[in-house]
Amino acid sequence: MTLKAQELSILLALPNPWKIHKINEDQLHKHLTVELTCEVKKHNFFSSIKDVTCPNCKQVTTWPTTIKYLTIRHVNLGNYKIYLHIPDLELNCSHGHADCPMILYSNPNLLYSHPLEQKIREFWDVPNGANIAAKLLQLQPNELEKLIEYNWLPQMGTIPPLAHPVWQAIITHRIPLNTKNLGLQCLLTWANGQLQRGNLNEHDRLTKIGMVRSYFEKYRNTLQSELEQLLNAQGIS
């Protein structure tokens, strides 16, 4: 990705007084980390103390001599994931986080920029919103778990109960399940062999089926496509 700092600043809609200091590109993983800084002014010619002024509320903040940095997720740019590497400034803006251009995120537990927060919230009331958001915004399973935990996204589709016939249907291939998950492939093959034996009592049969259901529960964040196939097949009788 060959973009000049000024072009990238416009594309990322970085608010004043933030400006790009350095750009680090990871072409292999399609990550772009943009290190930001602010325009600072000295107290006077002889002073080493520097200040940055908020353009909205005119609050003056002393620029730290030793800077701690935060890395926050920003909106994607094409097929690149964008991360903003920003100084962790001590701010107390009376306008609140959402309206202060100096504060680029709202929740210290969920380090997402305001534009990405807005995109995530678009999926609040959307059926299967968690799966859709994860796919469109390129969210990782651990990010998705946090967003669901903090009620930023709806819970993913409810997994059918153990007694639902869909489980035996996918094990016996009456519902073809398209999956590249090797662990699930092996488990389904094993469970199919167990059920085909024909001499299982009801308890043993449910135990084998329960192992498949438990696998879906445990790895539901990485089995989004498979879970969608499962939920779409629930009309089976």
Secondary-structure map:
Blueprint: H1 5-11, E1 18-26, E2 31-38, E3 41-42, E4 50-53, E5 60-62, E6 69-73, E7 81-87, E8 105-107, E9 110-113, H2 114-121, H3 129-137, H4 141-149, H5 166-171, H6 182-196, H7 202-218, H8 224-232
Parallel strand pairs: 2-7
Antiparallel strand pairs: 1-2, 3-4, 4-5, 6-7, 8-9
Q: Measured on Cα atoms, how large is the radius of gyration?
A: 25 Å
The best one-word shape is: elongated
Which stretches are low in confidence, meaning pLDDT under 50 for 5 or more residues running? Answer: none
**Main beta sheet, described?**
4 strands, mixed
Mean pLDDT: 83
Computed structural class: alpha+beta
Number of strands: 9
* Largest sheet: spatial strand order: 1-2-7-6
Strand content: 15-25%
Distance between the termini: 52 Å
* Fraction in helix: 25-40%
Secondary-structure element string? HEEEEEEEEEHHHHHHH
How many domains is the backbone divided into? 3
Walkthrough of the structure:
This protein has 237 residues and is α+β, with helices and mostly antiparallel strands. It folds into three domains: 5-108, no CATH class; 122-156, no CATH class; 166-232. Helix content is 34%, strand content 19%. The chain is elongated, with a radius of gyration of 25 Å. The model has no long low-confidence stretch (mean pLDDT 83).
